[in-house]
Design brief:
Largest sheet: 4 strands, antiparallel
Number of strands: 4
Strand content: 25-35%
Oligomer: single chain
Structural class: alpha+beta
Radius of gyration: 14 Å
Low-confidence stretches: none
Mean pLDDT: 78
């Protein structure tokens, strides 16, 4: 499986966006809905913790997870967060 990610900053609004996507199997609208409302894994050998942990982290920092279709065919997950104190960050 191929996994990619990207980052964008909007210094005017003080936000940055993170996107992570993969080339897994294409998901139907029903599957996308299940993922966004699920707390368990869709994989036979999965624990169901990955997206749950990310969702908790993002929401506790004032963001929201957005699920969609990846340009590679699988899942796209994105979220926005505010930069701390509006600082520009150093890229690390």
């Amino acid at each position: 499986m191929k996994l990619q990610w990207g980052k964008r900053q909007n210094l005017r609004s003080g936000n940055f966006q993170i996107e992570v996507w993969d080339n897994g199997p294409q998901l139907s609208e029903e599957q996308l809905s299940e993922i966004s409302n699920s707390s368990g894994s869709t994989k036979a050998d999965g624990l169901g913790l990955g997206l749950s942990i990310v969702k908790t982290f993002v929401e506790r920092h004032g963001g929201i997870l957005i699920y969609g279709r990846s340009p590679l065919g699988g899942l796209l997950v994105s979220f926005n967060l505010r930069l701390v104190n509006g600082e520009k960050g150093n890229g690390s």
